[in-house]
Design a protein that fits this description.
Layout (H helix, E strand, L loop, with lengths): L7 H5 L12 H28 L26 E3 L8 E3 L5 H4 L3 E2 L14 H4 L14 H8 L26 H5 L2 H6 L7 H4 L4 E3 L2 E3 L3 H4 L2 E3 L5 E5 L4 H5 L20 H18 L1 H9 L19 H20 L48 H4 L17 H4 L36 E2 L6 H4 L3
Antiparallel strand pairs: 1-2, 3-8, 4-5, 6-7
Length: 450
């Protein structure tokens, strides 16, 4: 009996090599199910596009400020396939071009001559994440440049490495950079906060105890509500009630708080008018010149023998009282010397008042948001300051007591007692020159591109 020879080729011929080319029932069902799934997905997508438009592709709800455009995605998003004369647009690109934002917002670049690059609007102001304020951007949008700041000029004019307010943010600029000369030039008034904060000061109607709000009053908005800053301290509103400008015992009217020339003219006219309307008082004083009419800090003038001499004497006395005792109490001489010389009796030349209204020129601050705190909680130096040269801004350590970096508008909730410390709270990315919304005078239909 011969043995059958088995070769590789003979064995291979036993297998059907066309098995995978023939359709089996199971394979047929797989193909039909896959095709049906694609058809259902296409019908669902087309139906959603038809019924809901591009909202079917929305990543989330719109912010409150942009809710009016919620159904018009094409106002901001560029279509994947633009519409033609007979076909609609299809799809929406994720990235919104800056040109769409600039249609409504006047937002100049962020220091274009200093920074080496500027991010797009959408990279910082993230939409479709709820009704949060779009300006409340995450610190990471700022630190992507400011952690290692590069400038076109090569040397940044500000701190080049800042990662967070609670961490390595430098001391506030007015406290960090203001020299003694700058502080002396910041004001031309002599003022002592500590003296004015003492209890039982002499007031017009008896002892008074002043508070910070007695002189520092908040600004008012156009609707009459409290503003975020403070109005300038004026003599008429804050000082005159205690520091009168009365210059003569016979005249109840006080001198105006204005130009020296105008005040001098007011004094001269007032005394001359009094002499004209009260000749009996003038005659009585000429006959019996009272000792209190002697000029302080000046050699006694001879008693007057006529109405004109009486007027000249009263004017000289009023000038000394007004310029040296009243105005000289707070105002400095322009040349740094004596403001009024009682010997020459020349009109004084006071230094112009320079009252800074805003120390933080590179940031914004709202006193309204902090009005629950007592002023002395932050401005602690006001209770002890005896010099007008003191800059009584709170140091950054005071701010960090609440703004400690443990709360974020886009982060998880934390326990109470930790105020938000994001960059956006104090710094305006687009600069103070931004105009906000553009004023194009559009109608509703034009604004919505209808």
């Amino acid at each position: 009996m011969s043995i059958r020879e088995r070769t590789t080729k003979l064995v291979a011929r036993r297998h059907d090599l066309n098995y995978f080319k023939r359709m089996s029932p199971l394979r047929a069902w797989q193909w039909w199910l896959a095709a049906a799934a694609l058809i259902v997905a296409f019908v669902w997508f087309s139906g959603s596009e038809f019924l809901h438009g591009a909202q079917a592709l929305s990543a989330g709800p719109m912010s409150n400020s942009h809710a009016v455009f919620g159904a018009r995605c094409e106002l901001c998003h560029v279509p994947v396939v633009s519409a033609t004369g007979w076909t609609p647009s299809f799809g929406m690109r994720k990235r919104v071009p800056d040109s769409a934002c600039l249609q409504c917002h006047a937002a100049p670049a962020h220091h274009p001559m200093e920074t080496t690059e500027n991010p797009t609007c959408g990279s910082c102001h993230t939409e479709h994440i709820g009704s949060m304020h779009l300006a409340a951007v995450a610190d990471s949008n700022c630190t992507q440049c400011h952690a290692q700041l590069q400038s076109r000029s090569g040397v940044p004019r500000i701190a080049a490495s800042i990662h967070s307010f609670a961490g390595d943010h430098p001391e506030l600029q007015p406290l960090r950079e203001a020299s003694d000369a700058d502080r002396r030039a910041a004001t031309a008034l002599v003022f002592n906060h500590a003296e004015h904060m003492k209890a039982g000061l002499k007031g017009p109607d008896g002892p008074v105890t002043l508070e910070c709000a007695t002189c520092h009053t908040a600004t008012l908005n156009t609707d009459g509500r409290r503003g975020s800053g403070f109005a300038p301290v004026t003599f008429e509103r804050s000082c005159r009630s205690c520091h009168t400008l009365q210059f003569d015992a016979h005249i109840q009217a006080e001198a105006p708080h204005g130009k020296v020339e105008d005040d001098a003219a007011f004094v001269t006219k007032s005394i001359a008018d009094f002499a004209a309307t009260h000749p009996e008082v003038v005659s009585a004083e000429i006959r019996n010149w009272p000792p209190e009419a002697m000029l302080p800090a000046k050699a006694p003038m001879p008693p007057p023998h006529s109405t004109q001499e009486w007027i000249a004497n009263r004017i000289a006395r009023a000038d000394i009282i007004l310029w040296r005792e009243r105005c000289g109490l707070c105002h400095k001489a322009a040349d740094g010397g004596v403001a009024f010389d009682a010997e020459t009796m020349a009109l004084p030349v006071f230094a112009p008042v320079k009252q800074p209204q805003q120390w933080l020129t590179s940031a914004v601050f709202s006193h309204t948001a902090h009005q629950a705190l007592a002023c002395a909680e932050c401005h602690t130096q006001a209770l002890t300051s005896a010099s007008e040269h003191d800059v009584m801004m709170p140091a950054i350590a005071t701010c960090r007591k609440c703004h400690d970096g443990r709360s974020s508008p886009q982060g998880p909730a934390v326990t109470a007692g930790h105020a938000e410390s994001g960059c956006f709270l104090c710094h305006i990315y687009h600069g103070p020159e931004q105009a906000g919304l553009t004023t194009k005078g559009l109608s509703f239909a034009q604004m919505l591109r209808q």
